[in-house]
Design a protein that fits this description.
Layout: H1 13-27, H2 33-43, H3 52-62, H4 66-73, H5 77-84, H6 92-104
Helix pairs in contact: 1-2, 3-5, 4-5
């Protein structure tokens, strides 16, 4: 059943299985694009804005420095510090990766 996708982007292993099944059904024309979008929302890890406290809490829970977290997110350590001080907020791919780490831990993106 594996399609080579990272399992860390799904809410759970069950959500991954459901999503893969529905993706196959979509490719076969059994379900339409709108229905597939609804399954995306239900199965994929949600992305919600993270506060400065959230970012710091995630980093401390994982037991890593700002520099180490920055390495895993492919950003500069200075940016992680700015997130933690509330000067900037994570967005785009960084926000998605942080959402995954929040739910599944740092090992999910290693």
């Amino acid at each position: 059943m594996s399609t080579g996708k990272m399992t860390s982007k799904y809410r759970s292993p069950m959500a991954e299985a459901v999503h893969e099944t529905m993706s196959d059904a979509h490719r076969l024309g059994v379900i339409d694009k709108q229905t597939m979008r609804e399954f995306d929302v239900l199965c994929l890890t949600p992305i919600e804005p993270l506060s400065a406290r959230d970012v710091q809490s995630i980093r401390k829970r994982e037991g890593v420095s700002q520099a180490v977290l920055a390495h895993y997110l492919n950003v500069k350590p200075k940016l992680v510090g700015e997130w933690e001080r509330g000067l900037k907020t994570p967005s785009g791919p960084s926000l998605k990766l942080l959402a995954i780490v929040k739910v599944r831990g740092l090992d999910a993106i290693r």
